[in-house]
Design brief:
Number of domains: 1
Oligomer: single chain
Strand order of the largest sheet: 6-5-4-3-2-1-14
Order of helices and strands: EEEHEEHEEEEEHEHHEHEE
CATH architecture: 4-Layer Sandwich
Distance between the termini: 5 Å
Structural class: alpha/beta
Low-confidence stretches: none
């Protein structure tokens, strides 16, 4: 598998001189299977960059689009994804059951004329909804994709990719220490992430910030570290960076996490996800 980050930011896109290293675009991650199948997770503002990359290379391939949930920062790039205007492109959508409602909303809604100058029906790509993940694992060639429910307002899915003996787990917009949460909830995420070669998990807040943000559906980096260590994953990438977080602050969080890992006697590799980064497994 190959994983590429087109958007790593949470809540709202944050372009500027203080977000150059880790990126300012919102969630979009590309997973390419060992057989070359392209799976795209979420359609935040980062998906526009992916579309321009595909256009420049003259690619018209079928791709799978998995939507974790339909909050705006995970969908706002879809109207600007150039393959939607390509008659030769096929986009197969799956993920949280409301995913099609979400990607249509910018074009057509019941409140008026929508928020975009063209309608969903005007798009030229062949866009179809699979609806597999709400029932069972999705199989794409040799790749198997399973899901876990998120602890997040209005719900959502995290995903586990297995391909040629390698495992990648992607869980964003997930609150690991939500108020009133059962201890079994953390155990659910430990089991889902167990033994992953790579875990990508929401770490939007610091431990000092989280007390004022209970119920918002995001984790602090210490809870995310705890999950990764207990699950025995090989590498952790902190994800869904807070819009106020600068590159220097994220570097400091990386250093703090590595200190904690050393103190715990763990061999876990940890860093903050960077826009444009590509990882091969």
């Amino acid at each position: 598998m190959r994983i590429k980050f087109w958007g790593t930011r949470g809540s709202i896109a944050t372009p500027g001189k203080d977000t150059v290293t880790y990126g300012g675009n919102t969630t979009c991650v590309e997973v390419t299977s060992s057989e070359g199948q392209r799976v795209v997770i979420d359609a935040g503002s980062g998906i526009r960059l992916l579309g321009e990359h595909m256009k420049a290379k003259g690619e018209h391939a079928t791709l799978y689009l998995l939507i974790t949930h339909i909050h705006w920062d995970h969908l706002l790039g879809f109207p600007f994804f150039s393959p939607i205007h390509d008659k030769q492109c096929k986009i197969k959508v799956d993920g949280y059951p409301t995913c099609m409602k979400g990607i249509r909303y910018a074009f057509d809604n019941q409140m008026g004329d929508g928020f975009f100058p063209i309608s969903f029906e005007d798009l030229e790509a062949e866009i179809t909804y699979l609806g597999v993940l709400k029932r069972e694992a999705l199989r794409i060639g040799d790749m198997v994709i399973d899901k876990v429910p998120l602890t997040h307002p209005q719900g959502g899915f995290g995903f586990r990719f297995q391909d040629q003996g390698k495992v990648v787990v992607f869980i964003t917009d997930n609150e690991l220490s939500a108020k009133g949460q059962s201890p079994d909830t953390m155990e659910q995420y430990v089991r889902f992430s167990e033994g992953a070669d790579l875990l990508i998990h929401d770490a939007q807040y610091t431990p000092g910030e989280i007390s004022q943000r209970k119920g918002w559906g995001h984790s602090n980096f210490e809870d995310t570290l705890e999950l990764a260590i207990r699950a025995g994953v090989g590498r952790l990438l902190l994800f869904h960076h807070d819009p106020t977080r600068t590159d220097k602050e994220l570097e400091a969080i990386e250093r703090r996490c590595r200190t904690i890992v050393k103190e715990r006697g763990s061999e876990l590799e940890v860093e903050a996800a960077r826009e444009g980064e590509e990882i091969g497994l």
